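Hi F.,

I've been meaning to write this up properly since the lab meeting, where we talked about keeping a consistent format for the predictions we share between groups. The idea is simple: the sequence comes first, exactly as it goes in, then the structure tokens exactly as they come out, then a line or two of notes. No screenshots and no reformatting. I'm using this chain as the first example so we have something concrete to point to.
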Amino acid sequence: MKPIQVGLMGLGTVGAGVFEVLRRNREEIRRRAGRGIELTMVSRRQIEAARALVGDSAVVVADAREIIANPDIDIVIELIGGTAIARELVLEAIHAGKHVVTANKALLAVHGTEIFAAAREHGVMVAFEAAVAGGIPIIKALREGLTANRIEWIAGIINGTTNFILSEMRTKGADFADALKEAQRLGYAEADPTFDIEGVDAAHKATIMSAIAFGIPVQFDKAYVEGVTKLNAADIRYAEQLGYRIKLLGITKRRDDAGGIELRVHPTLVPAKRLIANVEGAMNAVVVHGDAVGTTLHYGKGAGAEPTASAVIADLVDITRLHTADPDHRVPHLAFQPGSLHDTRILTIDEVVTSFYLRLQVADQAGVLARITGILAEGNISIDALLQRESAEGEAQTDVIILTHDTVEGRMNTAIAQMQALPTVLAPIVRIRKEELN
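Output, unedited:
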């Protein structure tokens, strides 16, 4: 059978990984796909640099639209990134009848509904395993492996940069700024790390997983997003003393009692005994809880040239296998049949139910603790654990650390405002959400 022909838009780090893995494992991939997969055309503005990499094995062009216009190209890989030109090129490829493979989580989280609708209209596939958690096949697990389950919740470490920073802060006692500099030195963080450290990258990925898990449209604009820039080494130390570790988690949860879905990214206390709490460095991990299978953990490299290339090529193989199949018999983009998607409400952060870690810097005076616990009791917020640091000799202030049981976030906001107004509370109260992940 004639090999399927692939065009690659964007020959950067991941694109080079795709080229290398396809070259190295060509025969293994052919045996699995049932026909050859040939990368015959690539686009990169720096043409000479691209030619130095691919040699004579592929035609190199500066304009990605030449790939889309080539009638011999069956599948287009989009590795350009961003949400502007990438959206235009992906939609043009779809309208030209090309299947698309992308690693672009921002594109799908923001424009996925439009892109998937166009793909259905034109009878082509859009595959995106590499868009979430790099080399971990979490999209396939959610769309196919767990299809018998009613998924209840997902919680994931889905940004390696922030996980590396938090690991450095915990193991070395480093402050955030120093840990970020080390991440940049090692190449885990970009020169401008904003998308990573502010939680945006993780929120893109959580949005995609939420859509697949619950059969809802992608709704990134409704996600709650909070990064790690305000974390203090002291809180990581206190969490450890209480048996917890702090991780930046992407969480999405079914809430039948509230008639909606939680979709949030923020620093989270996780019990140290949980496997996900022990995921260190730049690694990723996703925990999925389904009613039939229970809890599953998916762990591996979330970035890098060849781990991401592994996911891209897996998509190429899937499309090659289904290339001639009736479009109605292919796996739906978001796991559920298009007509079965529900526009379920995404809950606001005030409606989220979780437990909390609170750190209050207070005057070392009699009665302070009683006033604080009284406010929590009046708000019907019960205390799970309390830790008071002994003040050093001569100090007139101390830290009080409180762990609560589950409560509605809006109720906690009211209690924090009341506690903050006390003259004996000397600094802004630190609040970090806590998840037991039972």
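Notes:
The longest strand covers residues 244-255.
Residues 19 and 399 are 55 Å apart (CA to CA).

If this format works for you, I'll send the rest the same way.

G.
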